[in-house]
Amino acid sequence: MQSQVQLRVLAAGAHQVVRSRASGAHYSAKELPHTVGIDCVGRDETTGKLYYAFTMQGGTFADRINVDRSNIYPLPDNVDPVSFAANLNPAMSSWMAITQRTINLPKDFTAVILGATSTSGRLAVYSAKALGAGKVIGIARNSATLAEVDGLDDYIVLRDPIAETDFTKVQDVDVILDYVYGDAAVHLLSSLSRVKQPVQYVEIGSLSQHTSEIPSRLLRSFDLTIRGAGAGSWRIPALIKELHTLVPAAASWKLTPPRSVPLKDIEQTWNDASLRANARLVYVPENIS
After folding, report:
1. pLDDT at 193 (0 to 100)
2. Where, by residue number, does the polypeptide cross the bilayer (predicted)?
3. E strand or H helix that includes residue 41
4. Given pLDDT bands bounded at 50, 70 and 90, which one contains residue 154?
5. CB burial class (10 A; 0-12, 13-18, 19+) of residue 70?
6. What is the pLDDT of residue 2?
7. Who's near 17: CB < 8 A, 6+ residues apart?
8. Domain range summary for the chain, segments of one domain joined by +
9. Is the pLDDT confidence value at 286 over 80?
10. 68: enclosing H helix or E strand
11. Chain-centre distance for alpha carbon 242
12. N or C end of the chain: smaller count of CB under 10 Å?
């Protein structure tokens, strides 16, 4: 059997890691030449089968790519290539946070997602449920948007000021997945000082773009474990292994709508922040039709 497969690229996501690598800022892409893209959805033209492909060697922003068989994952024919290409990367954040950065979560654990209305936060609801959560509580600022997040068992609206937010609903939490950080995270953790069970807090993102000091008393007042989750805290081989489970799971999820742009227009659109303001940006080769 040939070790590589040629895929006709149908869609490739312009994820933050892709942009960081393209700028030379990411540790994994410091040398030139660099071909943009780490993943895509493509079709094997010899068999007609649809695949998700992941490769840190890059180069998925192309009409066709050659990729090792070990880096492709089959998809059902009914999956929308553009939506899947947009959503799988943000879904990795919560999946890897739970599988790699938590330990011994109880059966039917309770998960709290801080920043549940973001793309990654919405997908984190699915990840938590797929990985054994019995209850998922979402936290965000926009009450109307929060109420529409699929799969939540309950939610809490962040108030302004943050200190007025009531977190009594989360006293049975086992794991917190935080995409916000800052004052919201500190107030949430401060509200858990009377919990009896261990709490695992995993910091994934910083949507607030503010940092706040975690009082030392919190580290002593209850059984709190604090970890971060990102490509530096887990290894790529672990991700490759988890994709065998994540890809088929995500294929059945309700994915967030993307924004697609023709690959031929990449030079004019790459730095246009308005294109990615409300949706994940995906580049689509002309050969998709």
Report:
1. 73
2. none
3. strand 39-44
4. very high
5. exposed
6. 66
7. 26, 38, 89, 231
8. 4-78+257-288, 91-228
9. no
10. strand 64-68
11. 13
12. N
Between CA 84 and CA 129 the distance in angstroms is: 19
Reported as type and span, the H/E element at residue 98 is helix 81-101
Encoding tokens for residue 257?
């709508």
| Structure token digits, residue 104 | 């011994």
Write the secondary structure of 233-282 as one string of H (helix), E (strand) and C (coil): CCCHHHHHHHHHHHHHHHCCCCCCCCEEEEHHHHHHHCCCHHHHCCCCEE
Task: Give residue 289's pLDDT.
Answer: 47
| pLDDT tens sequence across 204-244 | 988 766 777 888 888 888 999 999 998 889 999 999 999 99
CATH code for the part of the protein at 91-228: 3.40.50.720
Q: Quick: pLDDT tens for 62-90.
A: 999 999 999 999 999 999 999 999 999 99
> Using CA of residue 33, residue 39, residue 43, residue 46, what is the dihedral sign?
positive
Please give the Cα distance from 236 to 242 (Å, whole number).
Answer: 10
- What's the rounded Cα separation, in Å, for the pair 10 and 7? 9
Amino acid letter, 39 = D
Residues 206 and 71: their CA atoms lie apart, in Å, by 30
| pLDDT tens digits, one per residue of 2-19 | 689 999 999 999 998 899
